[in-house]
Design a protein that fits this description.
Radius of gyration: 29 Å
Strand order of the largest sheet: 9-8-12-6-15-14
Number of helices: 17
Strand content: 15-25%
Helix content: 25-40%
Shape: flat
Distance between the termini: 81 Å
Number of strands: 16
Structural class: alpha+beta
């Protein structure tokens, strides 16, 4: 060693800087870990030099390994259950409190953090997953959240699946999930996907399952792999007759008796009711919900005017419906670039009973008709409303002035449901004729 190298300790002022200096370094190393470079490149191994003391003060597992009653005496340890890149990040954290997480390594690092009992790294991994959770990776992350009993991460995963179902079930990860997870997804009420697209994804999963077993993906084989619980959870009657005839029958997953039974329903033979399959729609399919719009005119927001949200005062509105519906949420007005904090409640005004409360942070965007800026407040669980009862929706909103509606209608007929609006009581100014709540978002209940 040169003189400067021999005195490296004096140049590093903290213990963290000194342990970081010897990370992945042969200097003072007294153990080596031999691991695969990648699980996809079998047979290629690399060694990581390490220091028993540093590992032992970071992990009770390594402490037992090196200093326990059955201490490991070998100076080279093989770990075939992990990858070089991920073990390196585990050690990096132990030496420096830093870690380089990515979509490619975070699941393996999480596995190692739990295996070697490093809870602070486990939390960093969970935080990374929460912040980078998408529809394309949610089905990979969910099983890990369940395995490590991270309830918060698991709940976030289910919310992504519920709201971005179509993207999740058409992702590459979908065909790799365990059958138990597939069943849990298909049985959920809060799915945002057309039933025919969900069936296509299930059929794709079954076909891939047949390939893994090395068998011909015919109807009988796919049905066996799926199992009756999954097949019976598909809402075939919610498809169109054309979708059923061109997609479902061609898959051969249903037998001829079941196909005939469902075809009778499509022919609107009301004397026939399927006893084998569910005949009701799911509680939520947001891309295919209906919007009851109540204003004739939209008044734009300008620099010095618009609808002001007054702190401590709510905008409220009461209404009746003529049919059973699931109220999915309510729309609010906003302004370009506006960010809002909203607390929305739906009450049964007759019994003064709260049915739903939703709190969140929202950003206004141009609505689908390009008429105004606004945002939707969607309830975690849709609210089932009965005919001819008075319901009240109330929102406390904090944020910049917005546009607002004018020339509101008392009666609105939408998709066979009549809405009758009435005053919501003392509030921030919203009434039947003007104000907030440009539309109510709902699905019909068959």
């Amino acid at each position: 060693m040169a003189v400067a190298e021999e005195n490296w300790q004096t140049a590093l002022s903290t213990i963290t800087r000194r342990t970081t200096f010897i990370f992945n370094n042969e200097l003072l190393s007294d153990v080596r870990f031999v691991v695969p470079v990648s699980t996809e490149q079998g047979g290629i191994n690399m060694a990581i030099p390490a220091h028993k003391f540093v590992l032992a003060i970071s992990s009770p597992v390594f402490f037992a390994m090196f200093y326990g009653q059955m201490a490991e005496t070998k100076d080279s340890i093989e770990l075939p259950d992990c990858e070089y890149e991920s073990l390196l990040e585990l050690f990096r954290f132990m030496y420096s409190d830093e870690v380089n997480l990515s979509g490619n390594n975070v699941m393996q690092v999480l596995y190692l953090a739990n295996k070697y009992m490093v809870p602070s790294l486990t939390e960093k991994c969970a935080k990374y997953l929460r912040e980078n959770l998408t529809a394309s990776n949610v089905l990979c992350i969910l099983p890990q959240a369940q395995k490590f009993e991270d309830k918060d991460l698991e709940d976030r995963c289910w919310k992504v699946i519920d709201k971005q179902t179509e993207e999740a079930v058409t992702s590459d990860e979908f065909v790799t999930v365990e059958r138990s997870l597939l069943e849990s997804v298909v049985k959920r009420e809060l799915l945002n996907v057309k039933e025919v697209k969900l069936f296509k994804a299930v059929d794709r999963w079954a076909t891939k399952g047949c390939e893994r077993e090395g068998i011909l993906p015919d109807g009988l084989a796919k049905r066996r792999i799926l199992g009756e619980e999954i097949v019976k959870a598909i809402r075939f009657s919610m498809m169109s007759q054309e979708e059923f005839a061109t997609v479902v029958t061609d898959s051969h997953i249903l037998n001829m008796q079941e196909v005939e039974e469902l075809m009778k329903q499509f022919r609107e033979d009301t004397s026939v009711s399927s006893e084998s399959f569910l005949n009701v729609s799911r509680a939520r399919c947001l891309k295919y919900v209906h919007r009851c719009s109540r204003f004739t005119t939209i008044v734009p927001q300008s620099y010095d005017s618009g609808w002001g949200y007054t702190r401590g005062m709510s905008d409220s509105l009461s209404f009746f419906v003529s049919n059973h519906i699931n109220l999915q949420g309510v729309q609010h007005f906003g302004t370009e670039g506006g960010k809002y904090t909203v607390s929305t409640e739906v009450k049964d005004a007759t019994d003064d009973l709260s049915l739903a409360n939703q709190f969140g942070f929202y950003s206004a965007a141009m609505n689908n008709t390009n008429q105004f800026y606004g945002f939707d407040v969607l309830f975690d669980i849709p609210v089932c409303l009965e005919p001819n009862k008075v319901y009240k929706v109330k929102s406390f909103v904090t944020g910049p002035n917005s546009c607002y509606g004018d020339k509101g209608k008392i009666f609105v007929d939408c998709e066979g449901v009549r809405f009758e609006f009435c005053e919501g009581g003392d509030n921030n100014g919203t009434s039947v004729k003007r104000g907030q709540f440009p539309s109510l978002i709902f699905t019909k209940i068959r």
